[in-house]
Structures are given as structure tokens and as C-alpha cells.
Amino acid sequence: MANERIIIFDTTLRDGEQSPGASMNVEEKLRIAKQLEKLRVDVIEAGFPIASQGDFDGVRAVAGVIRECSVAGLARARKEDIDRAWESLQGAANPRIHTFIATSPIHMQHKLRMQPDEVIEAAVAAVRHACSYTANVEWSAEDAGRADMAFLCRIVEAVINAGATTVNIPDTVGYTLPHEYGARIRSLVERVPNIHRAIISVHCHNDLGLAVANSLSAVLGGARQIECTINGLGERAGNASLEEVVMALRTRRDLLPFEVGIETTEIMRSSRLVSTITGFPVQPNKAIVGANAFAHESGIHQDGVLKNASTYEIMTPASVGLATNQLVLGKHSGRHAFRDRLHSLGYDLTDEQLTLAFQRFKGLADKKQELYDEDIEALVEDEVVRIADHFRLARLHVTSGTRDTPVAVVALEIGGETRHGSSWGDGSVEAVFKAIGQAVPMAQASVLSLYQVQAVTGGMDAQAEVTVRLTLDGMRVNGQGTDYDVIIASAKAYLNALNKLATKRGEIRRGV
Ligand code: KIV
Ligand code: ZN
């Protein structure tokens, strides 16, 4: 008999984006959604359309381009939320409305201030209203991990009767233990008479570090949809991590006899993209996608892996898309080879973009002997994909030393004019940021809350990828910049963040 299928529901763009600091603009959401489609997730939860115009635009944009996955929009149990979600999903090939209401005594009493029967009534009304638009309706019992089991059974039965085709049982506060959570799911299977008419979904938060374990335990209890995020991004300690859930299912098929449709070789690329866009680094020892996840340091381990990789590797690096750092291109590679490589990495550039990227590639190849896929991706991201620059770095000069105060001088192109700035700083990066601040007054008003450097590849000649997080008037953005020189990468990241702030403020459109 064929193994049963587990539906992978990705909520990186909704619950993941709710992590403080992880907010994304519409273009960034689209890029992640396209990557999730390549990863072959079943459902992409693209946002919470009533929450803000940005959220609405993000869901609408994703719904307009994604064809292979269902696209979901979140809504509270309110008519206006559901209407707004449906409006944002108009372009979707397979739209899903996801409506939720709190179900634990704590939430019903203190947050909703509603009696249990009123909550059932509101949930049923919401599901009925959503079903007037589509048959693809998911209902979530917020804080189900702490709900009274008899009440949970009653409300689940009622929403299925109202038309919900997926019922989600979130452990919203990451409170449950694996055997307990699995038993909750099994109990729903045994006690809710119409449960066979819906898919049971699970949505686990990681407050006790148990989100993945709880999700797997729930599958053994009867759940057939897992909600998760790339890199485990999400509220507080995050959600169940997609890569861990999927690779556990793939690696332990002996005990978890289920199928998932995920293209696992796209996992590393998805992880890097989400980390770069959000500015949330992946810890080196993170399972599956951490830099050390497949690194063998001790002599005994290295010896074993060389003799037979399965001695210390339970899955292959290639199965999660970790290239074994193969040299791909060098300084003698031509434009054709470069374009072919870009194509296989999933980039289709216009001739003009290709010319720009190729010039940059040649410049990099002069400095860096060996160029890997990661270098090419970083270069294209930096040169071509990032938001069109209003503030552009024309020149940068920095002096610093053990006995000298760092001083930076910058020339920026801003809307056809050149503006200059110069400043000292306690460090070179500070001097550069202050110099930019002289030329862009908005920079002085913004607050820097994150500065992070990562090497794109290993080795002394690795490119630096810098992420900068800025806040201004309650708006928060992440900027990225990549360069062979860390100071130049920092200046680019800072300018990228300022460009995003300016776009958000609408200043560029008004020509200010
Ligand atoms: O954690 C949670 O309960 C949620 C729901 C809205 C599904 O994110
Ligand atoms: Zn959640």
C-alpha cells in the first residue's frame, strides 16, 4: 500500500514574518514565494491581509504569480477579515482562506472575553462565510495545546460541519510535550465523529525547543498537514523548522512511513535566501542547514567518513542541496558560460542585467581565484536583484590604522546629482555610516539595530555579505550588500536599507 502523503504548509511569509525584525517588502516576499514553489511546498501562507496594506499587497502579489502551490491568507473570525483575505487571493490558482479563533480557557476569558458557546458560534459563522467564497477553507483553534479537550472536540466537529476542509490544532505557545500533543491529535481522531471529512493540521511553536518533535508525534497520532517555516523562523522561539521536519520524515521512513512532495535539494538555497532577506543568521550547529551540519572535525570522524560517508552521515549533503564547493567558473570563463551558470541557478537576466553582472563577475574573478555558485548568486543579488538604488555609492575612501582615527569620505549619486559626505568614527564602519549620513539626512534620524557580516564562502578570499537593520518612524528594514571588501559591503548594505526606507516613505516617487 502506498504511504500516506503529508501536506507541507509553509508559513515563513506569515508567522515567520511576525518575528520582530523579519519584516519583508513585497519584492522580497515574492522572491521567497518563488523559491518555496521550487522547493515544492504544498501551501504557502503568504500573509495576514487585513493586518496592513503591505500584508495585503504581499498576499496579492504572491497569489498572482504562484501556480504550483495553494496560496493561503490568514483571517480572524470576522467577516471583514475574511472579505479582505478573499480579495487579496483573487489571482491565486488555488486560494485558501485560513480563519482562526482562540480556544483555550485563558485566551477565551482574557483575550476574547467570550463564553465557549459564543466562540463556537463565531468560528462556525466565520467558516460558513469563508465557504461562501471557496471550498478550500482551513480553520485554526488558536492555543489548542492548552484547550479543554471536550471543548476542542465540540468546536472541531462544528467547524467541519460548517465546511472546513482542514482543521489546524496549533500549539500556539509551544507548551506541550511530544507524547501529550500526539495524544491530543489521536483523541480528536477517536472522538470527533466527522473528523474523516477534514485533514488534521498541526502548527507548533518552539518555546521549549519541541516544535519539530511535537509535529512528528502529531503525524503518528493522525495529522496529515504540518505547518512550518524555513530556518524555524517565527514568533518568539519560532515555528517548527521545515527542513528538520522534512528531513526527519525522509530519513526515518522506517518509523515514519509517509511521503512528502518536497524537492529537498532546494533546502539550502531556501534557507540562505530567507536568512539573507530577513537578516536572521542561521546558527552554525543548526540541524540540516547550519554551516557545521555536515562538517566533520575530529580525526576519527573524518577517517570514518572518508572510508564510508554513512559512518557519520545519516543523510547526504547533496540531498539538501549542499554543493560540495565545486569550482564553477574562473577568470577565463566567457559570457556564455556565465549565462549558462546563471540559468542553472534559476536567474533569467535581461541583456542589460547580464552585461552588468558579467562586468562585476570579471572584476571579482581578478581578485578571487575560485568562484563558486554562492559567489555568483551573491553577485547577482547585489548587482541586479536588489531594489533599484536611489542612493547609489559612487566612491568611497577610508583611512584607518592602529594609531589613526578612522576617517571616511563618500560620494553618492542621488537622483542624478552627486552629494559628498565625510566623517570620522570610532571604527571604519561607523565612519562610513556617519559620512553617508551627511549626504542623506534621513540616515541620521534612523536607528541601527543590527549589523552583521557573513562570509559568502570559506577561505581568505571570501566575499563579505553584510546585513544592516534600520528603524525610522516605526518602519523597520533590512539592507544587504556584498563585496570582496567588507567596508564597501557595509556601505552598500547601509545604502540598501536607506533605499528601502525611502521607498517605504514614498519619498523617491515624489522625487524628494
Ligand atoms: O500559533 C498560532 O496559533 C497561529 C495561528 C494563527 C494559526 O499562528
Ligand atoms: Zn503560529
Descriptive terms for the model:
binds 3-methyl-2-oxobutanoic acid; globular; binds zinc ion; 512 residues; three-stranded antiparallel sheet; TIM Barrel; eight-stranded parallel beta barrel; alpha/beta
Please tell me about this protein's structure.
The chain contains 19 helices and 16 strands. It has 512 residues and is an alpha/beta fold. The chain has 4 domains: 4-278, Aldolase class I (TIM Barrel); 294-321, no CATH class; 325-385; 391-504, Alpha-isopropylmalate synthase LeuA, regulatory domain (Double Stranded RNA Binding Domain, 2-Layer Sandwich). An 8-stranded parallel barrel has the order 2-3-4-5-6-7-8-9, surrounded by 8 helices. A 3-stranded antiparallel β-sheet has the order 11-12-13. Helix 2 runs antiparallel to helix 11 and helix 9 crosses helix 10. The longest helix has 20 residues, at 486-505. It is globular. The protein starts with a strand and ends with a helix. The structure holds 3-methyl-2-oxobutanoic acid (KIV) and zinc ion (ZN).
